Design the sequence.
């Protein structure tokens, strides 16, 4: 009964745990190494730094990859269901974090392939794994999830608007003023409607500027839509204050804080303070 | 009584239905064809692609037009009130989707008219027809509808602000710095107040930059207005969605839409459709 | 008792009334004339149009001014308290709408003064007078009014942020990269924080770009503040649904819809349907 | 008992008080001097003005520093806990407001160091001290405080997105089109996702423009997140403000803060401070 936990079990606690001391410290150490390795990739991509410290940064990359490999193997070793972990989203991200470096070692020339080097940046996704455990992230994701349909309606409207305005400007301004094709005009419309406004393509004719001004003012109401959707959703979420109690009878969750009886089966809910 | 539905009736179900299997599949097929045909128009507008694959894309356009024509005729055939459909918004959009191609076939030279070719892009509006059936779109449209008056007040305020700031900058900067006329200065004001900021026209004098900075900070409060209006409207809308059913036993209100039993007294709630 | 209303009274009803037929039609006519006269000013400011149609537009301006003068005199004639009207905001706007044209007629050369011509644009403010009667505008203004303090706190924070980021960038980038003085650097900070982003001044050094990126991400939280303030205010406004009933005892207004007794003096409120 | 307050006590009231007459006037005087001294720094940084009025502005700076020194010493004199004040945030800001000028007087050449001169701008933070006393600022800060976790989740998401999009564009566009390194590409991504859009770096290839358009549309949903978070928080905050007092007679809650009588039964409400 008071059996000592196995090494495997202890490792699992440290590597996958997030609440208690060692698990938490392990997580923080991993995040720091991830950020350091991504920062090294950033520096390496600057031509001047690469010329001077390229060798040093490559050694650092090897060290980081070694650490990530040890961590990856340790995770595989102590996880209960290995297959499930390896093919899970985070298992694949963990693999992608180390694969490009091995490719660049074993395949001659691969190190110089930009794609191989850029792929390493994807290890930043590993930080999301930690985010995964945060309650706040759950609330935000649930709000995004439940406003999914409304947001897709909004996106269809934006895409249509952008196509119509882009086509109109292609007709009005024409290739002479930078609106050289429909896709380019639509790119302009996206840049304008999202209020980014690079200015690499801008209307030159009076007519084009008038239509562009209309598109900008229209984009105002459009920016308001996703914000309104998400605000409404987050407010509903915060007002709902769903209790964590479970019905003893039908085992369902999701009861309001002020509920005395299960809304699904009518059984009395356990009393909470 | 168990009379077999006529062909016309069956066709109507497939073409106009959206819920059931064949109606849904038909809708999805139409959307894919619409998107493919719009994508072909995009490609055709790129000079390099047009030079190489222009003939192929024209053939594709003919095929798309043929499909749309068949669909259009089928809709006219099986709709109960033909006149109403033909002159409805979507009936006209369906016609506009095929007309330009016929014009370009039968009128020599029309194919090279840019307007005729751009007109075809309007078939993207046909996708809205599908949106029309989505409940989420209804909620958004109802919210926009009921905040119509507030939004028009906001637009009058924006237009006035833009005219005043534009005129002021025309006075301060003058034609020498790109503010060559009142309409152009107002175009600058729209670009600035909507935070698009192309940079094609930008204040050069210290005075002009100070006034521009003021216009930008003012535009902050302005962006907040439509978002606030729509948020308030969407929240009101979402609060309205709480079921209006009353418990027969304790007479209390405020039950969730998915509740079967009263959360206050445990009595079964009356069944609603 | 059934005395016929005087001409003065009838005129007052038409000119100042907004609800009934003739008053409403008069308002619409005035708005159309204002918009037409402002549009004429726009056209006149375009050099090419002025060269060709300058004389015609000047004649139109004279006609518009004549109409506005007749209206102004009629308003003075039929208003009960003449002094109050003349020195009210809208009385002064009405005067400013006609004054510049008379100046340009009676003072030789004044017509060519840009200031005199631009001043005429201010007649656009006359449209606000109509807005004044709209209930929706009242709700928006009341919301802006009651969030006045919060918005000024926000503005102080923005101004401080802009000064700190502007000074920092002046230090980092220096005059060589366009940040030629503190005011100019602060102008850049305003352009950046409000997400306008002209690109006339942009950071060139790696350090400057890093600080600029920080300023941009900070500006995110900042845009959220006024929107959040106004959303909260508009929602409160819409939930409050203050009844229009007046306490018979203390004559105070502002009772909630569900109130039975005056919250100020405790007297029973008149029953409403 | 009716002992006369000491000079120290009186000074403390004037310098640290904010509500009553002399304390309030003192605060306003300090704010005006701060703004004037910051404005003088702005002017001094413009090369043309410095060349002409540099001596005058330096004299003004000496005068401002003298006033701030007197104020700083007076604060130290009359504050109850001197050590605590000196090492508090505002104590340090007060010191920083005067230190650079003394450095530039006593250390030869220091006056020409840009850092020393820019440091003076930090005295703008002294204005925050006043903000500190405003209730509205407290509400805003409390809302920001309680949405701290949600906002940090949002920031992690933004940073990840910006890194992924930046790396992708570095791969697609490459150094030839301005995306010369990973940090620079990420700077571009920040400029784009925050909708600032300088246009100093902009995608040139069709592929790059398509990815950029996707990044822009994604940034839409992202702008909605902090606004939604803060709106929800401010609404919760404003709903909390409804007084918690209960009617002694009918035991109902939900009375406005300014209510003297119960709106349900007309009984007098208990007096709250």
Sequence:
């Amino acid at each position: 009964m008071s059996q000592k936990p196995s090494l495997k079990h202890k490792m699992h606690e440290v590597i996958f745990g997030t609440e208690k001391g060692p698990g938490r410290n392990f997580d923080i150490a991993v995040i720091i190494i991830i950020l350091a390795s991504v920062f090294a990739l950033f520096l390496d991509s600057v031509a001047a730094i690469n010329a001077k410290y390229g060798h040093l940064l490559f050694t650092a990359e090897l060290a980081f990859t070694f650490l990530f490999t040890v961590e990856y193997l340790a995770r595989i070793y102590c996880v209960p269901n290995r297959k499930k972990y390896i093919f899970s989203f985070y298992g694949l991200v963990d693999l992608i974090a180390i694969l490009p470096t091995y490719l660049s070692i074993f395949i001659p020339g691969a190190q110089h392939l930009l794609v191989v080097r850029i792929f390493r940046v994807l290890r930043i996704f590993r930080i999301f794994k930690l985010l995964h455990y945060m309650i706040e992230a759950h609330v935000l994701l649930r709000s995004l999830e439940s406003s999914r349909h409304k947001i897709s309606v909004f996106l269809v409207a934006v895409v249509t608007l952008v196509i119509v305005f882009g086509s109109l400007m292609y007709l009005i301004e024409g290739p002479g003023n930078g609106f050289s094709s429909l896709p380019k005009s639509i790119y302009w419309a996206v840049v304008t409607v999202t209020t980014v406004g690079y200015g690499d393509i801008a209307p030159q004719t009076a007519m084009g500027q008038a239509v562009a001004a209309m598109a900008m003012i229209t984009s105002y109401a459009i920016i308001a839509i996703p914000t309104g959707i998400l605000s409404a959703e987050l407010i509903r979420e915060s007002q709902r204050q769903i209790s964590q109690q479970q019905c003893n009878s039908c085992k369902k969750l999701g009861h309001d804080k002020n509920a005395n009886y299960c809304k699904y089966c009518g059984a009395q809910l356990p009393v909470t303070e």
Q: What stands out?
A: The first helix of chain D runs from residue 7 to 16. The domain at 148-238 of chain D is CATH 1.10.287.70 (Helix Hairpins). The radius of gyration of chain D is 27 Å. Chain D touches chain A through 48 residues (CB under 8 Å).
